[in-house]
Each structure stands twice: as C-alpha cells, then as structure tokens.
Design goal:
The complex is a heterodimer of chains A (514) and B (162). Chain A is an alpha/beta fold and 514 residues long. Chain A has helices at 2-22, 34-49, 72-80, 88-113, 119-131, 133-139, 145-161, 168-179, 186-200, 202-205, 211-224, 226-231, 252-256, 258-262, 285-297, 302-321, 334-350, 354-383, 392-401, 417-425, 429-435, 438-442, 485-490, and strands spanning 61-64, 67-70, 407-410, 454-456, 459-462, 475-478, 493-500, 506-513. In chain A, helix 2 (34-49) packs across helix 3 and helix 2 packs across helix 20 (417-425). Chain A is globular and about 75 Å long. Chain B is mostly helical and 162 residues long. Chain B has 8 helices and no strands. Chain B is elongated, with a radius of gyration of 20 Å. In chain B, 23% of the residues are buried. Classes of the chains: A alpha/beta (514), B mainly alpha (162). At the A-B interface, helix 14, helix 15 and helix 18 of A face helix 4, helix 5 and helix 6 of B.
C-alpha cells in the first residue's frame, strides 16, 4: 500500500511538472536563442546532407558560432527529424523529457541517501526541485546543456550506488563518459567527479575484490573516449579551457551567496535571467541555512561527504572558468543544493505538527507557483524578447515574401544573427554549404575566428557600410539603433517596413533607397 | 557565579541596545522605501503585462502598496544576509573561513549563548526592516561578524594545538 502511495505521489509530481514544462513550450521562451538555432540548423543539415553547416561530414565536435560543442544532442535530434517536423518544439521537447527523467533521478538519489527523517520530505523536496525556477527555465531550452546535465546526474546516481555495490561503478563510468559527448561543461565535470570520488572513497573502492570492476571501468572509460583522443591535439578540443584561471576562485562566494541563489541572479546574460526571480524561490533561504548547518555537522558521514564532493565538483569548473556568473554552467549544482535544502525542509517539517505540515506545504507551494507563474510565464516572455531574439521569424517571412529583392541585415548588436535567419528560413543546408567560406571547412578544428559577414542567396548579414550600402539596390534591415531618422534622411532612405514585439515596441526596421 | 552571568548579560544587552539605536538613528529609512520614477514605471508596465482576466493579480503582485513594502523588506533581508557584501568590503577575504567556522560553532552551541543567538536574529530582522542605507554601514551586524571570526579563530588555534 505504501509503495502504491509513493508511486502515486511521484507520478503526480511528474505529471504536474510535465504540464509545467510543456505549457506554451513554443511561445515561452519567446523567440529562438542563437544556441538553439545553431543546434537545430546543424541537426537539420546533418539530417538532410550528413554534413554540418560548413560542409564537414559527421563531425565529433560541432563548430557552433565559433565555439565547439560535443555532438550527441545534434545527432540525436537529427535522427528524430525523420519522424517530426523541423521546429524548435522538437528540440525543446527532448530537453523536457530529459528533465522529467532528472526529477525521477533526484527522488531516487535522495531516497537512496536516506538523509531525511520523514518519508514525506522526499516528495516535498522532489516537488520543489521540479518546480524550481532554475529547473523550469532549463527544462525549456532547445540545446544540449540540459541533456548533458541529466546524463551526468545518471552517472552520479550510479556513483553513489557503487558505495554499496561496486558493480555500479561501471554504469557510473559509462554515463559520466557519455555526458562528455553531450555538453561541453561535462567534459570537465565528469572526469573531476570520478577522480574526486576515487580520492574521497579510496578505502571503499580500492579493494582486492573490486579489481575486476575497476578494470572494467578503465576499459569502458578508455573505449568511450577513443574519439576524444584523436582530437586532443586540436585547438577545438581545448577552446574553452584557455579561459580557466584561479584568480576567479573568490567567485565561489558569489555562487554560494543567498542573494545569488534566492533573490537576484547576477548572470550578465539577460537570456539566462527571469524578471523578479532568481534561480530558487526566496523562502528557500531558510532551509538553505539549516541544511548547510546540518551538512557541516554530519560531514564525517559518507553520505554527507558525497554531497560535499558533488557540490565542490559541480561548482569549481564554473567558478574558475569565467569572471562572470553563469547559471547555466553551474546547473549540475542544483542536485546537491536541493539535497541540502531537503535537509533543512525535513528539519522544519519534523518540528511541525502533521496537521500544520499540510497547511504549510499548501501555502508555500501556492506562493512558489504564483511567483513562478508571474515571473516566468507572464513577465519573462515580454521582458526578455530582445535577449531571446524575438522577431527574426518576421524578418524571415518578409524575405520570403520578397524573393526578387536583395537584403542586408545589420548584425552589429547581434553578430550571430545569420544562424537565426538560416533557421527561420529553413534555408537549404546543401545550398548553404556551397556558399559558406571554404576556409572554415579546411581549418575546421583549428578554431579560426568567426566570420565578420555572411552571404547566402539574396541575403547579406553584416554591419552597415554607410559609404556603399545606401547606394545599393537592397533593403537594409536593422534594430532601432542601426539607422536613425537623421541617417535615413541624409542617405535618402525610406522606411518600408517595421517589425514589433508583443508590447508593440519596434524591434526592427526595414529601409530602402528612395 | 549567577550574579556574574547576570551582570554579563546585562552589559551585553546594554551594548547591543545602544548599537541598535545607533543603527536605526544613522539609517535613512525613507530611502529604503522610496521608488524612483523608473521603478514606478516598471511596476505599471508589469501590471499591464498580465492578461485581462488576471488584471487584479497583476495589480496585487506589482503595484499594491503592501506587497511592494513586503518586497522591499525581502530585498533588505537579502542585502543583510549576503555575506559577499561583507567580504572583502569590511573584512579581508582571508578571514572568511574563520567566519564560517565561527558561525557554525555559534549555530551548534546556540543553546549555550541563547541571548547572543536571539539578539543576532533580532538584529537581522531590524536591518531587514530599516534597510541598508546607513551612514556607517551595517555596524550592528559587523559586531557579530567580529564575534564569529574570533570564535572561529580560537577554535582553529585549539585544533592546531591538538
């Protein structure tokens, strides 16, 4: 009976969070981010031609917007394109399903850790994990980082299980290694987690009876990483490692600060932020402090040590990789953080009467949901339109409606806009591969700097050259800062169209020579 | 012995009360609850973002005075408990580990020094209510920070000696 109730509760959480993640999935986030467009277009290109946008056959790392990303997400979605249409919904849906898996994994991991006194605490914390702004936000992204995080979480789950049964170490090695082919972040996190685990629990792992398991792990790890070994000598493999610096270490205070986690997200990339909401709900600051206290108090226990290891490993690579805070890089930290929050919640629930527990939970859940709805589902789609490149679909439609005209798109404030047009136009990848500068194909893994201009069909994407462009027979499209009314008058340009956001603000304008 | 403890507690209460009064007097409370024209504009814009059927909710969450005051208190609270505001602004970062250790000892032995524990909680509540615009900074809390750092330092020395 108890098992049935547990299953029912878990299923309820999954159904509710699934509804939350799928609700208006195409419309929220409002627009298509460059990372989404880049992944989607390359998957489309692989599906149709077997080559990426530069014409390189089945690459191990995809050159996406000048950076290099592991390839598994792109290959996976390219396979799905056989059955589903080329739409951002497909890419975001894959992330949603993976996050639902992470909800189950979180429940299983916390249950296996047996840290909470009350059995209801496991469901309460899983529920808040599932509806946390940090997870909801990342559940609705159509690119690889969230899937990478989920597969990494599968690996860490088996890693913990291996403390009881060493055979699980093979599964852990497999999933951790696999995650390195999904997201760039995991290429640092996975080896660090494995290494840290072996150091923390050397007595439990390095036993005579585990010899075969350890050899199997070594074999699995090496076998999975064979493709990586071929690229160790390329710039593409190390492209983001060059940014690592220990002088950013003090940023750990910013990442762990209650203000960062529960009140104000200091990420400078507006794409990653939600109005009036940080990564967690503000009330969670109380269980956070209690949880931290309990963590330190019980640190000699192997389970608490695991949380400490998990937190350190998931934080440090993000901390030392940039002077700026990135909520996306540090996403895997959400698991140990919620286990810590669970310690606090369990401690609070333990001290309250059972009748009051229900009222307390209902009140907090209602408040949390209200905050999430207001900030993410109402304000976010309107206030983050620019960061999410809203309006490029309108430009693409305008271009499609005028096939006999030439277009110049000013990309001064969005140098990666070309990929948005390729995505929205569903531009034939085979055609684009012939038009793209062959220099990038020839020097693919040498990490050359991104191009300054792009030309395909009747479209050019670059900054405006005021000496030449106004005299050419083309339609110039840019944001309101691209062409002022004085400039238009001075260069005899006439406004032929304008594109607006949901609030009625002009986001792009189109001009033509008189 | 009891008399000595009573005298100590009285002295502590007197010191904390004076600091509390000084903190309140030297803080521009009005500034913490004032809205700039941009903030007022944003509130209205956000209220209007809600669909017509939920216009009342939009008003309550974004414009209603009581909710706005509550949001200001939350803002003040997070400003108060944000330890990165104190390191390295008021204390060198090297003292942070001692602070953490001291804070942990303080929380762990809270029953031993109940008076300090409750006065610490009251100080946080007061700072959350009066806001961060104090002429001399959050001196009320700095007093506790020094206490935690010393506590942590002494424990560390004891651990090393062992």
């Amino acid at each position: 009976m108890k098992k049935f109730v547990n299953l029912f509760l878990l299923l309820g959480i999954i159904l509710f969070s699934g509804f939350l993640y799928f609700y208006k999935l195409r419309e929220i986030p409002n627009g298509v981010y460059v990372d989404e467009a880049s992944v989607a277009y390359n998957a489309y290109s692989i599906f149709l031609t077997g080559k990426d946008e530069y014409g390189v056959s089945n690459p191990i790392f995809f050159r996406l917007l000048g950076s290099y990303s592991p390839s598994l997400f792109i290959y996976l979605t390219s396979l799905l394109l056989k059955y589903f249409s080329f739409d951002i919904l497909l890419f975001r849906s894959l992330t949603v399903f993976s996050v639902l898996l992470s909800v189950v994994l979180f429940y299983l991991l916390s249950k296996k850790m047996k840290l909470y006194k009350l059995s209801i605490s496991y469901f309460v914390i899983t529920f808040f994990y599932a509806i946390s702004p940090w997870l909801v936000f990342n559940a609705k992204l159509g690119y690889e980082t969230t899937l990478g995080f989920v597969i990494f979480t599968v690996g860490t789950y088996f890693l913990f299980l291996s403390l009881k049964n060493a055979k699980n170490l093979s599964f852990a090695t497999f999933f951790l290694s696999l995650s390195t082919y999904i997201s760039h972040n995991q290429r640092f996190l996975a080896p660090l987690m494995l290494l840290g685990f072996l150091i923390f629990y050397k007595k439990e792992i390095f036993k005579k009876e585990n010899k075969i398991v350890l050899l199997t792990c070594l074999f699995i790890g090496l076998a999975i990483h064979i493709p990586h070994f071929f690229f160790l000598g390329t710039k593409a493999f190390w492209v983001k490692s060059a940014q690592f610096s220990l002088r950013y270490l003090s940023n750990i205070l910013v990442y762990l600060s209650p203000k960062t986690l529960f009140y104000e997200n200091p990420d400078i990339d507006m794409q990653h932020t939600i109005p009036k909401l940080s990564m967690m709900f503000n009330w969670m600051v109380i269980p956070y402090f209690i949880g931290l206290y309990l963590l330190v108090k019980n640190i000699s226990d192997y389970r608490y040590k695991y949380i400490l290891l998990y937190s350190g490993v998931t934080l440090i690579p993000s901390v030392v990789s940039s002077a700026f805070i990135s909520e996306q890089k540090v996403l895997p930290f959400i698991i140990p953080l919620f286990i810590i929050l669970g310690l606090g919640i369990d401690s609070i629930l333990k001290r309250t009467k059972s009748s009051f527990r229900i009222i307390l939970f209902a009140l907090i859940a209602f408040y949390s949901f209200l905050m999430l709805y207001s900030s993410y589902f109402v304000l976010f789609p309107k206030e983050r339109v620019e960061a999410w490149n809203y309006g490029y679909d309108q430009i693409a439609q305008y271009i499609k409606n005028n096939p006999d005209k030439n277009f110049l798109i000013d990309h001064t404030r969005n140098p990666r806009a070309y990929i948005l047009l390729l995505y929205h136009l569903k531009y034939d990848p085979a055609k684009y591969q012939k038009e793209v500068d062959s220099f990038y194909k020839e020097n693919y893994y040498k990490a050359p700097d991104p191009a300054q201009s792009y030309k395909f069909s009747n479209i050019e994407v670059r900054s405006i050259d005021w000496k030449i462009d106004p005299k050419q027979n083309c339609i110039i499209i840019g944001d309101p800062l691209s062409i002022s009314s004085n400039q238009a008058e001075e260069h005899n340009l006439i406004k032929v169209n304008e594109f607006k956001d949901l609030s009625g603000n002009i986001i792009f304008e189109a001009f033509e020579a008189k | 012995m009891k008399k000595k403890k009573y005298f100590k507690n009285l002295l502590f209460l007197a010191a904390i009360s004076s600091l509390l009064i000084f903190q309140i007097v030297s803080t521009n409370i009005k500034q913490a609850y004032t809205y700039t024209p941009h903030e007022i504009n944003l509130q209205i814009q956000r209220m209007n973002s809600f669909p017509p059927s939920l216009a009342r909710l939009g008003y309550i969450l974004n414009v209603k005075k009581e909710v706005q005051i509550f949001e200001k208190i939350i803002n003040n609270f997070f400003f108060t408990v944000d330890f990165k505001e104190y390191f390295p602004r008021y204390f060198p970062s090297i003292l942070f580990p001692f602070f953490i250790l001291g804070f942990y000892i303080f929380a762990d032995e809270r029953n031993k020094h109940k008076l300090v524990f409750y006065s610490f909680l009251i100080s946080i509540i007061v700072l959350s209510l009066i806001g961060p615009f104090a002429k001399f900074g959050p001196i009320l809390l700095i007093f506790y920070f020094i206490y935690f750092i010393i506590l942590g330092f002494l424990r560390m020395v004891r651990l090393i000696k062992k």
